[in-house]
Amino acid sequence: MREGLFLKKNVEKWKQYQFNQQADPDETAKRFTELVDDLGYAKTFYPESRVTRYLNGMASRIYLDIYRNKREPGSRILRFWKTDLPLVNYKHRRELFWAFIIFTTMAIMAAFSAAHDDSFVRGILGDGYVEMTEDNIAQGDPFGVYKDENRMEMFLRIALNNIQVSFLVFVGGLFLSLGSVWLLFVNGVMVGAFQYMFFAKGLGWDSVLVIWIHGSLEISAIVISGAAGFILGNSILFPGTRKRIDSLKVGAKHGAMLIIGLVPIFIAAAFLEGFVTRLTHMPKALSISILAISFIFIIWYFVIYPMIVNRRSQSPELS
């Protein structure tokens, strides 16, 4: 069949498909099937024709419409936690690694500095906090600060504060990642100085068993927020083949997904700090169990499980 005859025979049908959108899924599927047949014929006999390109574009649009509106099995929320977020974690595993390295390095450097300079801890944490802690130690209750406030009020205040800090670390990525680096630096130094203060007074391991009940989740969330900030900053610095604005949109989306994924962790950390950390005389086995469960969860969900999901995925990298 000549191309002109082929065009004359089908053009009215194609115009109807193009300009008259069909809501009925069965009719849409029928149109797609007919267009694929026409496209196959055109590719065979007119491979370089504008008709072929036209049919290819229209078939692609209908295909995307079918799968965009296709009812997905299960809940979108469940898919977010089972697939989407782990794939984002896997794609940006380097950012997570560097956020961890920066934070940990700063904490170690702070502890080293505190060991060689008696005024360092006071300079970081403030005289008031150090003196309060020393008073609590003298009274035989070194972790009494966690018992001074109403449980529910403490839970709500800490949850909101954790979310705010994490969001600031994330948004800091807009400053070419430097804002996120600085906030990881500040928080790492505070943690290092804080932890050394208790080790210097012979309460190091006791503090680990008490403070890190909530700190394991809280600090992990700050590190992951730093990774989200790096994703945002790197999308500006290294757009790759995308336009910079398009790269920024993708980076903001992936970073925001990480922050959303951290919300349950913030809440869990605040609950532990408000209701559990104050139980400073709980059995060591119970404290160790809580610590182990927290760290195992973080490592599994943010490191190991994303690798498993990536291997199962048809697409090894999330675009």
Automatic annotation (TrEMBL):
InterPro entries: SpoIIM-like (IPR002798). Keywords: Membrane, Transmembrane, Transmembrane helix. The keyword Transcription regulation does not apply. The chain crosses the membrane at residues 96-115, 163-186, 193-213, 219-238, 250-272, 284-304. It comes from the Bacteria. Pfam families: SpoIIM. This is Putative membrane protein SpoIIM required for sporulation. The lineage of its organism: Bacteria, Pseudomonadati, Bacteroidota, Chitinophagia, Chitinophagales.
